[in-house]
Amino acid sequence: MNSRHNRMTNVGRKLVMFLGFLFIFVGYILAYEKGLPLLDRAKASKTWPTVEGVVLESRVESHRSSNSSSSTYSPHVVYRYQVEGKDFEGETVWFGNDVSTSDRTMSEETIRKYPVKQNITVYYDPADHAIAVLEPGVFKTTYFFYLFGWLFLGLGILMASSVLFRSLLRLFRGGAEMQTPAESAG
């Protein structure tokens, strides 16, 4: 029974370690591959050049998962603008507006600001004219992926380090117990 318990304990440790590293990996991707570039782009957008554009589509999108009865909402705005004689279409109202929330009113307020056929000011990235935004700067939702990524990173680090710490503690305790009989014999 003791060997079965030890085997189950080892499997448990390996599982927690695996999940810890998986959380670290996912957290890194969310925070540093998605979140941080989004924050950098949002900050930079305040100094981007502008052109006139026009709203092509404007609606609230509803999202319902298959295992839930509740819905989340996000604004869907499509606009056209032209830079150096070339036409572009954009869908970004602000960096982070692709985050769905259960608050429909926020999406409805956004849609009211951008009705179809309305002329608008578009801020575009001078390095990549296909990247544009209607409301430059950083907003609360801009931080979503960065903070969510750090939540995963923190949990992963906590899980992995707890297993490593316990293993090191057992190693040192086992090493101290093994030294004691040898010291008393000498």
UniProtKB/TrEMBL annotation:
Keywords: Membrane, Transmembrane, Transmembrane helix. Pfam families: DUF3592. The keyword Transmembrane applies. InterPro entries: DUF3592. The keyword Membrane applies. The chain crosses the membrane at residues 143-165. Residues 51-138 form the DUF3592 domain. This is DUF3592 domain-containing protein. It comes from Gimesia chilikensis.
